[in-house]
Specification:
By secondary structure, this protein is an alpha/beta fold. The chain folds into three domains: 189 residues, Phosphoenolpyruvate Carboxykinase, domain 1 (3-Layer(aba) Sandwich), CATH 3.40.449; 274 residues, Phosphoenolpyruvate Carboxykinase, domain 3 (Alpha-Beta Complex), CATH 3.90.228.20; 74 residues, Phosphoenolpyruvate Carboxykinase, domain 2, CATH 2.170.8.10. Helix content is 29%, strand content 22%. Helix 3 links the parallel strand 4 and strand 5. Helix 12 runs antiparallel to helix 13 and helix 12 packs across helix 17. The radius of gyration is 23 Å and the shape is globular. The N and C termini lie far apart (71 Å). Manganese (II) ion (MN) binds next to loops.
């Protein structure tokens, strides 16, 4: 029996008593425990076994049809001073939030088992890692947390060593959307989530801890918690450079994290190494560079659009030991989603006979959960406790117009403006309308744990500590032509843009300077081997009128965050506006 931290035991006892849980189970993260939970869910119908020949140890979970995405309108940051949460968050007074949540949790686990899930975000032995404990009544959450984090006995040992942890309390409740709240208490390092069993609402290590709470901690401790993939790019000379990229939800992080180089690049010896696909914790190092660790241990990836041609690395992970959520199935019980191949599914994501008039067979936000180690391109540096040095930070959005394929910020300060002014079309990853352009600074709109004005100031301060800061870029894989088709081939071919980015980092290629940043010169992006050359003029055109409008929209957006917008961001914006005229 391990010794248990008194504060942890006491909190668990109180929660179990308040929720009137039938049983309390402390998770050790073992295979046997995992198998017992899977067997239990097969019995209750929470999981369905998939085709054992083609997909051994793979299961499907169908969530409640009203519980299929993050719920930003029901997500709160509860700071003592409402201004500290900022206009970027919904706010509730901590007392009020506690009263509300206490009410919801009262007796909610009657007849249920309460699982205690100790987890570590980041390699167990990394000084940058942080631990948490999630209390949940959902076995689905437990098996997902086991794939997504370092969960179980090792984490518990570290928690006892550290003496501190983030407290996460979760119940699926009755899944009533009217009784669903995801609330954060950054000043108490705690999270409470009620009424949803889905992804970012329920796997509390992910967005709630590793972004909202961690961004708050990072601010006081001098680092950054970001919605970023981490990837290593190996050139033909065998040198590996690391990039971190922030794209909003469902805008290409998983795909870029494990992209496969296009044919001529592969032949030349380019390789891509995956370190993370969603979250990066970034620390200034002794040497003045910025180092990244991935706090997660698995992927919770978007299924639709994943195929042999777009993301073969992801597909290779999905044949064994994967959990699928809200995908369709074929006649022979294999998982299926739009974009996978041209088979016709038998059942849709709700388990109904597939009928195209009901909409897509797989939910547009259907997901797979796998361990990172299953990824064929998993980097041998992913477990490095010190992290990897970042050469470039890339901000990206999904924009049909204006934003060029790639541009480079002049320096860190200008890069912070580029990140702060990001905009992107909304996606199915969150409940609400899809395809509407909204400002999504640093892809953190739904995840920033404090006021964005303070956050931008913090970015500037971190930059000041770096003698060798990463260069900052903006990309857009999603420009559309008049017919509505994507102009850029995307996916593996994005390496062509990454090559330009790496050349720029090393000062090996000149560029065209505009008021909004540096653009590639004609012919600077290598298109060799592409079946059809995309319209590079359309992708890289610098539209003066469009940018003039964009800059004035940015100014309007920043207004919302006054008086906390850093002076130097005003300066950067004024400079661009003056140059545009
Ligand atoms: P979250 O897990 O929600 O944070 O999403 P993500 O940023 O990891 O996005 P992901 O890589 O899963 O991609 C989301 C969708 O965009 C999928 O349907 C992909 O197939 C599609 N996608 C990704 N990269 C590209 C690209 O370069 N071009 C195009 N056209 N689509 C892409
Ligand atoms: C996202 O929405 O950015 C995700 C999925 O990565 S979720 O875990 O639901 O947040
Ligand atoms: Mn994400």
């Amino acid at each position: 029996m391990t010794f248990r931290l008194a504060s942890l035991t006491k909190w668990v006892e109180q929660a179990a008593a308040h929720a009137r849980a039938d049983h309390v189970h402390w998770c050790d993260g073992s295979d046997a425990e995992n198998q017992r939970l899977i067997d239990l869910m097969l019995e209750t119908g929470d999981l369905v076994r998939l085709n054992e020949q083609t997909h051994p140890d793979c299961y499907l979970h169908r969530s409640d049809p009203d519980d299929v995405a993050r719920v930003e309108h029901l997500t709160y940051v509860c700071t003592e001073d409402p201004h500290d949460a900022g206009p970027n968050n919904n706010w509730m007074a901590p007392d009020e939030a506690h009263a509300l949540m206490d009410d919801l949790f009262a007796g909610c686990m009657e007849g249920r088992t309460l699982y205690v899930v100790p987890y570590c975000m980041g390699p167990i032995d990394s000084p940058f890692s942080r631990c948490g404990v999630e209390i949940t009544d959902s076995p689905y959450v437990v098996v997902n947390m086991r794939l997504m984090t370092r969960m179980g006995s090792d984490a518990l040992e570290r928690i006892e060593r550290d003496g501190s942890f983030v407290k996460g309390l979760h119940s699926t409740g009755d899944l009533d959307p009217e009784r669903r709240f995801i609330v954060h208490f950054p000043e108490e390092l705690s999270i409470q989530s009620f009424g949803s069993g889905y992804g970012g609402n329920a796997l509390l290590g992910k967005k709630c801890h590793a972004l909202r709470i961690a961004s708050h901690q990072a601010r006081t401790e001098g680092w950054l918690a970001e919605h970023m993939l981490i990837v290593g790019i190996e050139n033909p000379a065998g040198e590996v450079r690391y990039l971190a990229a922030a794209f909003p939800s469902a805008c290409g992080k998983t795909n870029m994290a494990m992209l496969i180089p296009p044919e001529p690049y592969r032949e030349a010896g380019w390789k891509v190494w995956t370190l993370g696909d969603d979250i990066a914790w970034l620390h200034p190092g002794q040497d003045g560079r910025l180092y990244a660790i991935n706090p997660e241990a698995g992927f919770f990836g978007v299924a639709p659009g994943t195929s042999r041609s777009t993301n073969p690395n992801a597909l290779a992970m999905l044949n064994k030991g994967a959990i699928f959520t809200n995908v369709a199935v074929t006649e022979d019980n294999q998982p299926w989603w739009e974009g996978l191949d041209d088979r016709v599914p038998a059942l849709d994501w709700r388990g109904r006979k597939y009928d195209p008039s009901n909409g897509p067979a797989a939910h547009p936000n259907s997901r797979f959960t796998t361990s990172m180690q299953a990824c064929p391109s998993y980097s041998d540096q992913a477990e490095n406790p010190d992290g990897v040095p970042i050469d470039a930070i890339i901000f990206g959005g999904r924009r049909a117009q204006l934003a060029p394929l790639v541009l480079q910020a002049r320096d860190w300060e200008h890069g912070v403006l580029v990140g702060a002014a990001m905009a992107s079309e909304t996606t199915a990853a969150a409940a609400g309308q899809v395809g509407v352009v909204r400002r999504d600074p640093m892809a953190m709109k739904p995840f920033g744990g404090y006021h964005f004005g303070d956050y931008w100031q913090h970015w500037l301060e971190v930059g000041q500590q770096l003698t060798h800061p990463p260069a900052i870029f903006q990309v857009n894989w999603f420009r559309r032509d008049d017919e509505g088709g994507f102009i850029w081939p995307g996916f593996g071919d994005n390496l062509r843009v990454v090559e330009w980015i790496l050349d720029r980092c090393r000062g090996q290629v000149s560029a065209v300077e505009t008021p909004v940043g540096f653009l590639p010169e004609d012919g600077a992006i290598d298109l060799s081997g592409l079946k059809r050359a995309p319209d590079m003029n359309a992708l890289l055109a610098y539209d003066v009128d469009g940018w003039r409008r964009e800059l004035s929209e940015m100014a309007g957006f920043f207004q919302e965050f006054e008086p906390r917008v850093p002076e130097s961001l005003h300066g950067q914006l004024a400079r661009a506006s003056a140059e545009i005229g």
